[in-house]
Amino acid sequence: MSLTSPSLLNVAKAQYTFKLKAYIGLFTSLIALHAVAISLSLSASTFIGTSLGRTHFSSRVFSNELLVWSAVLWVFLVSALLTTKSYRDLDTAFVSSRLSSNLANGALLLTWCVVGGLLAAFGGGMLRIGAFFALGEAAIASQSFFMTSLELFVGAAVTALYMLLFGTLGYLCGTLVQASKVFVIVNPLLLALALLVVGRDSDLNRRVLAIAGIIAQESSLALLALKMLGIAGALLGLAFLLSNNAEVRN
Amino acid sequence: MGSFFWGLLLFALLGLNAYAASKAGLFALRHQLERLLLGYLLLVLISPLALYLLPRERLAHTVDASMVFAAQAAGRDLLPAALAGHPASVAGARRANEWRFAVTDGELSIAGIAPHLPVIVERTASGDGKIYVAAYATPSIFWGMDISAWSPPPITISFVAGTLTITQHPSQDIELIKFMPEASAEQIPAAVRPQADFVSTSILGTQLVYIRLPRDVVIRDPHPDLMFVHSGAR
Q: Shortest Cα distance from B8 to chain A (angstroms)?
């Protein structure tokens, strides 16, 4: 019999701190992906050319879109990875419950989303510095060269929210797969089927786009955050329920 | 190809660090890795601030409607003003470059005159025996940005063996870099700066060469396109 009864939050906190350091390899992959995305963004710029008299103008437009979507894709994959047995086995180092483990994973996911959001938004600065030195003779449009603090803050926040949405979706998909291996086939099959049906039926397509627009067309940061956090919370809650109901050895 | 340089450099640094850490053992690797990741994160976070430390010569500024109209007017007015003997009086026209040469004998020839580059000669009563040559240019605007520092192409003037030679690059390539606003921030319009109204406006600046020549210097075989300041204009 133990003389101390650790609280759920304390255990989750200890697990979170441990996982943050133990999963540094996953975080390294985000950094590597970020570096690759910057490199690719530098070479995958939009190119427009025109001539005026004897002068030929060419314009290259750079965007940090690739940094954002690579971070979103990364968080989806690592979230699913967190639910696999090899990662769950790390929880045996603690006297813990599934709930504390899930809470720690949720906090870990949130941390990665915040860091990923910052990397994607502030990576625009790296992109600009890279373009400045790589294209030494080119004229640079000053209006787009400097980034405002509001743009950086909102960019990081929106990216973090999208990462959270896709991260929790990945976590739910991973939990489903852990609950039953059938979902290894069912998940992608359902996605492909949905894309096929929605793609063929224009009315359904319109309706799906209208639903997606609830998030994608929201122009208020506060409302976007509320919607995203609500959906992410629901997805994570569902994943918690599913994993809590699983057998002990699963 | 240059764009891959930075990516390769980052990979090289990561690889070098991993190699150094592996030589020092696994425990060191973890500490090295943590330090490297923190360093990279810090580098990314300060990069928007570091932009302000870069030299500003290559920045092309956005123009407004009045500047577009002024550039158009300057392009239209430069030649008549030069023919009247006062090219510098045109608002917006700038002296892109100037040269001064000493006349060794009483005559010279002018080479390199082309139809697209007006050359105007002003006869002066100056007795210092010097030729003053200046290149004037009006503002160039490309997609709403002032690119006068890049266009029109620069002119070089040389004076060798009694021949004043005007050289201009036959063609010019100008590359303009633009950056899209932060991709995610675009969803929140209030966070992104509005784009300039005249993004599609492009004006190629007018350029001319203005020569101030002592009255007693004779021009050998003057080119038919060579123009002179109207007598009595100054």
A: 8
Q: Which residue of B has its CA nearest to A220?
A: B188
Q: Which chain A residue's Cα is nearest to B39? A: A31
Contacts of B146 in chain A (CB under 8 A): none
> Beta strands B94-102 and B227-228: pairing type?
unpaired
Per-residue DSSP letters for chain A?
--S----HHHHHHHHHHHHHHHTHHHHHHHHHHHHHHHHHHHHS-EEEEEEETTEEEEEEEE-SHHHHHHHHHHHHHHHHHHTSHHHHGGGGGSS--HHHHHHHHHHHHHHHHHHHHHHHHHHHHHHHHHHHHHTTT-EEEHHHHS--HHHHHHHHHHHHHHHHHHHHHHHHHHHHHHH-TTHHHHHHHHHHHHHHHHHH-HHHHHHHHHHHHHHHT---HHHHHHHHHHHHHHHHHHHHHHHHTS-TT-
- The minimal CB distance from B142 to the residues A38, A54, A57 is found for A57
Q: Which residues of A touch B175 (CB under 8 A)?
A: 57-60, 135, 137-139
Instruction: Say yes or no for a CB contact (<8 Å) between B4 and A43.
Output: yes
∠ CA B91-B96-B100, rounded to 5°: 120
CA distance readout (Å), A153 to A19, A148, A218: 27, 9, 17
**Cβ-Cβ contacts under 8 Å, A123 against chain B:** 44, 47
Q: How far is B14 from chain A (nearest CA, A)?
A: 9
User: Smallest CA–CA separation between B113 and chain A, in Å?
Assistant: 16
Q: How far apart are CA A137 and CA A116, in angstroms?
A: 32
Question: Are B116 and A53 inside 8 Å of each other by CB?
Answer: yes
Query: Would you write out chain A's pLDDT as a tens digit for each of its 250 residues?
Result: 556 667 888 888 888 998 888 888 888 889 989 988 998 898 877 777 778 777 888 888 899 999 999 999 999 999 999 988 888 777 777 767 788 888 899 999 999 999 999 999 999 999 999 999 988 888 898 888 999 999 999 999 999 999 999 999 999 999 999 888 888 888 888 888 888 888 888 888 888 888 888 888 888 999 999 999 999 999 999 998 888 766 555 4
The pTM of this model reads 0.80
CA of A37, closest CA in chain B: separation in Å? 9
